[in-house]
Amino acid sequence: MSQTIASTDTSRDSLLMIAAGGVLSGVLTPLLPTLIDKISGVPADLRLALVAVPFAVLVFSVVRRCSTNPWWGALVAAIVTMIAFVAAVNAAVFIDGQANGADKMMRNILAGLAGGLTGSAVMALGIARLPAGPRDAAAWMHMLLTGTLAGALLALDNALGLDLTSFLYPAWQAGVAVRLAQALRRSERA
């Protein structure tokens, strides 16, 4: 009985540390474009992928700690995360363009939802293909839901005119990282 309680406390502490890592990476993310834009001769999508490096590092450590994937699997998960970031931004921009004529707040909400869903879906699809990745779609549903709903914070960021700070990135990255850890742990127990 005491081992179960200790395991639950350790798990809870671990998830809190992962969430704190997500908040930290989310604080760093909007600060990187000004540095990365100074790199000349690099394609725009590659520069955009480099903005996701703090979150990719967190995903690397979560995959290493919460699953039995080899080190290269964690590296692949980090690369998938960078690809997911590019896909999420492109999806948000696309939806914003498609909703042209709608109220700006509504466009931001729709773009945020689309970007959040796209980012978390690309991550789930990529990480599920790893050797120890959960193959069960139900294991990923919480991550998809969290990523999608947190994406709506894009509207708050735009309403407040935030540029170098953000509510979206810390909330999205913390939520998705915790849900990723839970999905990986769920597959390890199965």
Q: Please bin the fraction of helical residues.
A: over 70%
Radius of gyration: 17 Å
Shape: globular
User: What's the helix-strand series?
Assistant: HHHHHHHHH
User: What multimeric state do the chains show?
Assistant: single chain
Structure description:
By secondary structure, this protein is mainly alpha-helical. The protein has one domain. The protein contains 9 helices and no strands. It has helices spanning 2-28, 32-36, 44-51, 53-66, 71-98, 104-128, 138-151, 153-160, 168-189. Helix 4 (53-66) crosses helix 5. The model is unreliable at 1-10 (pLDDT under 50).
Short note summarizing the structure:
It is built from 9 helices and no strands.
Helices and strands, with pairings:
Blueprint: H1 2-28, H2 32-36, H3 44-51, H4 53-66, H5 71-98, H6 104-128, H7 138-151, H8 153-160, H9 168-189
Helix pairs in contact: 1-4, 1-9, 3-5, 4-5, 4-9, 5-6, 6-7, 6-8, 7-9
List its salient traits:
190 residues; mainly alpha; 9 helices; 79% helix; globular; disordered N terminus
